[in-house]
Amino acid sequence: MSVRSSSFVRVLTLVGVLATFLLPATSADASAPLRTHAASRGKFIGAALATSPLSNETSYRNIAATEFNQVTAENAMKWDSTEPSQGQFNFSGADAIVNFATQNNQQVHGHTLVWHNQTPSWVQGLSATAMRTAMQNHISQVVGRYASNATVVSWDVVNEVFDDSGNLRTSFWYNTLGQSYIADAFRAARAADPDARLCINDYNTEGINAKSTAIYNLVSSLRQQNVPVDCVGFQSHLAIQYGFPGDFQQNLQRFAALGVQVRITELDVRIQTPRDATKDATQATYYRNVVNACLAVTACAGVTIWGFTDKYSWVPDTFPGQGAALIYDESYAQKPSYTAVHDALAGGTTTDPTPPTTPGTPSASSITSSSAALTWTASTDSGGSGLAGYDVYREQGATDQLLGQSTTNSISLTGLSASTQYQVYVRARDGAGNVSANSALATFTTTAGGGGPGGCTAVGTVQNQWNNGYVVQPVTVTNTGTSAITGWTVTLTLPAGHTLSGSWNAVVTVSGQTVTARNASYNGNLAPNASTTFGFQVSRPNGNTQTASGYTCA
Ligand code: XIL
């Protein structure tokens, strides 16, 4: 397999070298499909394929064949497709995708062997002994079918085995077999194809959080027990309204340090429909960031997009009011997100030399002793890469201080000092990294705080969020008084329907929606101006975008 794929890369490299000689460099580069650029970077770029348009639509088939060098079956290899009733295997859909991939020199990632969804009810009702046997037989038959087929190189052996708090999901697998089903599944897959790369796959694990840490610990412990886990998949079903997980690359890197391959397995970036140019631009930035994170981590094998055209995407059916998550629109036109993926794979080359327009003068409101809200007239970006966001600075002579960043034309500044004059300005960034001129300055003065002896402030930062939860880390507690304190009490409010699912570095109690966090035994002593931190994680209703607020410190 490795011989085969490296000769494939060599052929592509040769094509690239010839193209450099035979064609004007810029046009050859710009028009090359995604897979050409990906291969020259040693990565795959893939798409999940659905069997029906693959057999019925020429446009779908052509793009699938020419743009990608890796494919995943969106549904055709799941248990309900391959073994709908016990012992009755049906590989028609799976074979159609594998044959297509073979014809087009693409690798197939097998998805998925053991999952709690799309598994027939006959499996779910089995006794423990019968269920373990059925699982091993299923893996042996499905993996075994493609074991000698060089196109199928890897498998998602288990999928989504954790919940968002980082506990093992109480699926029928876990409830019937206990945790051991995971190791058993990997061993069965290894026995069925000793050469296939075996992966564990999950969602909401892109950033460093309770769930990704649980997978990290499980993979580490399984490998210590010689359970054959070779790879970790990060689904990456992202949404622009929840922010980009800024520690994505760092997270990939910590898994790489365990010695496993990592891969982005199901990338899509949904928006609240309808589309507009600003949302498209933000979405493009997310795609670019994901591709760049994978490019920056040697152990990252590549990126699979969960479909490629908005015409066939699982998003609108699963997340009401959301969609347009992919890189081609419903009519197979390339979107800004396509350009972002293309340009990132092509080596960060950009066709956008134009910075965004200068933001309007910010206007300050809701000024307290430690916070203020700013809004300004939005910038526009005409260079093609789209507006990515704004940086808000405090003017302070030689080195201005970055107070915060926003993807919209407003921000709420926290952690400000009491009775202090601030002069602030905003500048805009586009997806290519071009920066606008600075806006004009706005001046405001914070109110007097309870800054006498014993006063303190608390500022919470949302580090990472997903559809139904978020992590606030750090909450920075600062002694703003003039003498040392030996303890602190922070209160904050959770929006209706939000519940605390974990906390660290504080003793936390909850009453209604009010959370009270007191210092732990080891972090209550703060000298004047000294700070300490704690953190917590919250579950919220699906689709809710609110976060905790109203931090007070005493
Ligand atoms: C989705 C498919 O895209 C849909 O067509 C199907 O109805 C449900 O499953 N995580 C996974 C994928 O691992 O298998 C899911 O795919 C999306 C979430």
Structural write-up:
The protein is an alpha/beta fold and 554 residues long. The chain has 3 domains: 7-345, Alpha-Beta Barrel (TIM Barrel), CATH 3.20.20; 363-445, Immunoglobulin-like (Sandwich); 456-553, Sandwich (Immunoglobulin-like). The protein contains 16 helices and 25 strands. An 8-stranded parallel beta barrel has the order 1-2-3-4-5-6-8-9, surrounded by 5 helices. Helix 13 (248-256) links the parallel strand 7 (237-239) and strand 8 (261-272). Helix 9 runs parallel beside helix 11 (180-192) and helix 13 (248-256) packs parallel to helix 14. It is globular and about 75 Å long. Residues 1-28 have low confidence and may be disordered. (3S,4R)-3-hydroxy-2-oxopiperidin-4-yl beta-D-xylopyranoside binds at residues 74-75, 159, 235, 266, 314.
> At the third CATH level, what is the topology name of the largest domain?
TIM Barrel
Task: Give the overall shape.
Answer: globular
Q: What small molecules are bound in this structure? A: (3S,4R)-3-hydroxy-2-oxopiperidin-4-yl beta-D-xylopyranoside
Number of strands: 25
Q: Roughly how many Å apart are the termini?
A: 63 Å
Strand content: 25-35%
* Count of individual helical segments: 16
Biggest β-sheet, characterized? 8 strands, parallel, barrel
| Number of domain modules | 3
Strand order of the largest sheet: 1-2-3-4-5-6-8-9
Into which percent range does the helicity of residues fall? 25-40%
Mean pLDDT, all residues: 91
- Supply the helix-strand structural class: alpha/beta
- CATH class descriptor of the largest domain: Alpha Beta
Question: Uncertain segments of ≥5 residues (pLDDT<50)?
Answer: 1-28
CATH superfamily of the largest domain: Glycosidases
